[in-house]
Amino acid sequence: MAPRQLVLPMFVAEGLDEPAPLNSMPGVVQHSIDSLLRAAGQAVEVGVGGLMLFGVPTPAHKDAVGSAGVDPAGVLNRAISAVVAEVGDATVVMSDLCLDEFTDHGHCGLLSPDGSVDNDATLKRYAEMAVAQAAAGVHMVGPSGMMDGQVGVVRKALDSAGHLDVAVLAYAAKYASAFYAPFREAVASSLEGDRRTYQQDPANRREALREVRLDLAEGADVVMVKPALGYLDVLSDVAAVSDVPVAAYSVSGEYAMVEAAAAAGYLDRRVAVLETLTSIRRAGADVILTYWAAEAADWLTSESR
Ligand code: PBG
């Protein structure tokens, strides 16, 4: 495992003057733009391969259709421009392409009158959001909403707008997991209920391959499995069939579990973190999204000195 295989997910919240710590993820913060740029610089310095940005708008800027995600002045699009200007020549800048942070109902898509998520209406919105993020300068977009057809629509929209070089990191096999709970605090999610109508059933292993093949056919440049730790079998299956690099997202709940156990003195933190990441790498991940990315990159570098 090399530092460049690690990608750091980062949260940037609108209206903050200083970083705000997260209860359920000790050591992770919601950044202001200033602190985001500082932390991005530090992560790049220790050799991480990329940064994945998530935006957290103020409640006043959430609405039913996630307008702030498309608005060039929205928090995520502004953060993309700032991070690209700061470290864009030295790392891969990625952005979450999803509506859940921007909708007042907290779902990843637009809702039909009956309250269900409208897949195809959502695709149009993702296309606009992809173009807005590309215009802000992002290198790679990460459609994470699990709408059917999202990769194809995003690829086509990017190409039509002339953003031929913007790559797509497809959240291909994303399961409806309890291990996203701390993330929902991190993005101040408005969600009530769950995402089981669009994310995958944790009991279903084979469906992941179908999702991956569809995303590959639609033009994915990287395919991702999420969560990582409980889904190493899926990751290994995907790595065996994918002809593009495979990523795994070690999610907020995986981070929180190890941090809580280490804080209680039940685990040797550093050894447990490196073993966790190594197991994900061993199962087949070429790229790992992890909240430990910067710290682990630093450890890996000092170990090889
Ligand atoms: C959706 C999204 C989620 C995560 C990344 N992108 C949450 C969800 O699907 O509810 C979770 C990441 C984590 O738990 O670390 N935009």
How would you describe this structure to a colleague?
The protein is of the alpha/beta class. The protein has one domain (3-304): Aldolase class I (TIM Barrel, Alpha-Beta Barrel). Helix content is 41%, strand content 16%. The chain contains eleven helices and ten strands. Strands 1-4-5-6-7-8-9-10 form an eight-stranded parallel barrel, surrounded by eight helices. Strand 8, helix 8 (232-241) and strand 9 (246-249) form a beta-alpha-beta unit. The longest helix is centred in the middle third of the chain and has 17 residues, at 119-135. The radius of gyration is 18 Å and the shape is globular. The mean pLDDT is 96. Bound molecules: ligand PBG. Residues 96, 98, 100, 108, 144, 180, 183, 195, 251-252 line the site of ligand PBG.
What's the tally of helices?
Answer: 11
Helical residue percent? 40-55%
User: Order of SSEs, N→C?
Assistant: EEEHEHHEHEHEHHEHEHHEH
| CATH superfamily annotation | Aldolase class I
CATH topology: TIM Barrel
Query: For the record, what CATH class applies?
Result: Alpha Beta
Give the integer mean of the pLDDT values. Answer: 96
User: How does the overall form come out from the CA principal axes?
Assistant: globular
Q: Show unreliable segments.
A: none
* Largest sheet features: 8 strands, parallel, barrel
Strand line-up in the sheet with most strands: 1-4-5-6-7-8-9-10
CATH architecture: Alpha-Beta Barrel
- First and last CA, distance: 15 Å
Domain unit count: 1
Category from helices, strands and their pairing: alpha/beta
List the bound ligands. ligand PBG
Please state roughly what percent of the residues sit in beta strands, choosing from under 5%, 5-15%, 15-25%, 25-35%, 35-45% or over 45%: 15-25%
Number of strands: 10
Rg computed from alpha carbons, rounded to a whole number of angstroms: 18 Å
